[in-house]
Design a protein that fits this description.
This protein is of the alpha+beta class and about 400 residues long. The chain has a domain at about 5-195: Ribosomal Protein S5, domain 2. It has helices at about 5-15, 90-100, 125-140, 145-160, 170-175, 215-235, 250-260, 260-285, 290-305, 310-325, 350-365, and strands spanning about 20-30, 40, 45-60, 65, 70-75, 105-115, 180-185, 190-195, 200-205, 325-335, 340-345, 370-375, 380-385. The mean pLDDT is about 95. Bound molecules: adenosine-5'-diphosphate (ADP) and magnesium ion.
Length: about 400
């Protein structure tokens, strides 16, 4: 439950009644990490933690926004969005991206409420941007579909906030479907829903407590390393490699001899990770949770040893999970360097495993990590207005 209701927040902090209420979920990625910016495959689910916004149009062309997660209000001119280096950039970026698509945004008041923890790797930023894009599109008559809204959110984060991110997070938040994972081809933007064997598992998310936002430089470094690995691979194979997606596991033996070991490890992660996405789709479709668990554990090993984006906290959570009875597999989710782990667990063991994770982690790091059970939820959309306020 998102509390307070965004309409209440809008009334209490800005004295307005909403014209539109919209929502957008956070996400976890089941598998397919650090593949999106190399045109690869990913398999996210939108989760039942979401950001809700209430929006009231203004006649004077000004914009104000408040958030339950931030003190004070931000004000700006939506006709001239300007990057400021604070959370208003996520809102202003959406305004700018809509304007670029010929949808002029007039004045508005906006209240934001959310139960997606910010900076935890559950993509609170995409949830915020999709909720804002959905509300502004509805309020100012843009008529965009969900894919277009995802592109708006992506343009906002890349072009305005300035993070070199791929399309995984906005597509997951825009297109998620209850009971399903979303197979996303980041080269063609083709999507496919993969039905989850619902009643037979729980998905636990444990937060390592290390804020992901501290890792922006390391993320940009991985993006650059993949680019360098791609160039080295093209030279070694004597053919163009537009994206690492163009390589298959069968290319690896030839590249092992030719590439510098560091670059080879980065490349090997991306190439094997793409293959793991389809292995996971197959495991889910046939309801083989043991096989799905193997894919998660192999994915974690690859992120830890080849891509080197895990941390002691994330490794510890995965090891605790994998050693516990009833856990099929565990891995870090999101870009790494902090954030959360996911654990695929037999339903009857979920509560006990959550306790094992929290206790074991506390023994080592002297704090209890939050552990949530999440379920696959619907992507972004407009909500009905409350009858009275
Ligand atoms: P993640 O997307 O993994 O949660 P990011 O660093 O990408 O982490 O995005 C977190 C940032 O997004 C926050 O620091 C804040 O600037 C912004 N943000 C996300 N949710 C909200 C919210 N409900 N209210 C205000 N700002 C938010
Ligand atoms: Mg984010």
């Amino acid at each position: 439950m998102v509390t307070p209701a965004p309409a209440e927040l809008l009334a209490n902090r800005l004295g307005r009644r909403p014209d539109v209420i919209a929502r957008a979920p956070g996400r976890v990625n089941l598998i397919g990490e650090h593949t999106d910016y190399e045109g690869g495959l990913a398999l996210p689910i939108a989760i039942d933690r979401e950001t809700r916004v209430a929006l009231a149009r203004r006649e004077d062309g000004r914009a104000r926004a408040v958030s339950c997660q931030e003190s004070g209000e931000v004000a700006f001119n939506p006709a001239t969005p300007r990057r400021r280096g604070d959370w208003s950039d996520y809102v202003q970026g959406v305004v700018a991206a809509l304007a670029e698509r010929g949808i002029p945004v007039g004045g508005f008041d906006l209240a934001i409420a959310s139960d997606v923890p910010p900076g935890a790797g559950l993509s609170s930023s995409a949830a915020l941007q999709l909720a804002v894009a959905t509300a502004l599109d509805a309020a100012f008559g843009g008529g965009l579909d969900r894919v277009a809204l995802a592109r708006v959110a992506h343009a906002a984060e890349r072009g305005f906030v300035g993070i070199a991110c791929g399309i995984l997070d906005p597509f997951a938040s825009a297109l998620g479907r209850s009971g399903h994972a979303l197979r996303l081809d980041c080269a063609s933007e083709a999507t496919q829903y993969v039905s989850l064997p619902g009643a037979r598992f729980r998905l636990l998310v444990a937060h390592s407590g290390v804020r992901r936002s501290l890792a922006e430089n390391a993320y940009a470094e991985r993006v650059a390393e993949c680019r360098a690995a791609r160039r080295a691979a093209a030279t070694a194979l004597g053919r163009p490699v537009a994206r690492l997606r163009a390589l298959a596991p069968g290319d690896l033996p030839e590249l092992e001899a030719a590439l510098e070991p560091g670059l080879l490890r980065r490349l090997r992660h991306v190439v094997t990770e793409n293959a793991r996405v389809d292995a996971m789709c197959g495991a889910l479709r046939s309801g083989d949770l043991e096989a799905a668990g193997v894919v998660l554990r192999e994915g974690q090993r690859s992120l830890r040893d080849d891509f080197e984006v895990s941390t002691a906290e994330l490794d510890a959570l995965c090891e605790l999970g994998d050693a516990a009875a009833g856990v099929f597999g565990s891995r870090l989710t999101g870009a790494g360097f902090g954030g959360c782990t996911i654990h695929l667990v037999a339903p009857e063991r979920a509560a006990a495993v959550a306790e094992v994770l929290a206790e074991g982690f506390a023994l080592r790091f002297a704090r209890r990590p939050p552990v949530w059970s999440v379920a696959a939820a619907e992507g972004a959309g407009v909500l009905p207005l409350p009858p009275t306020l």
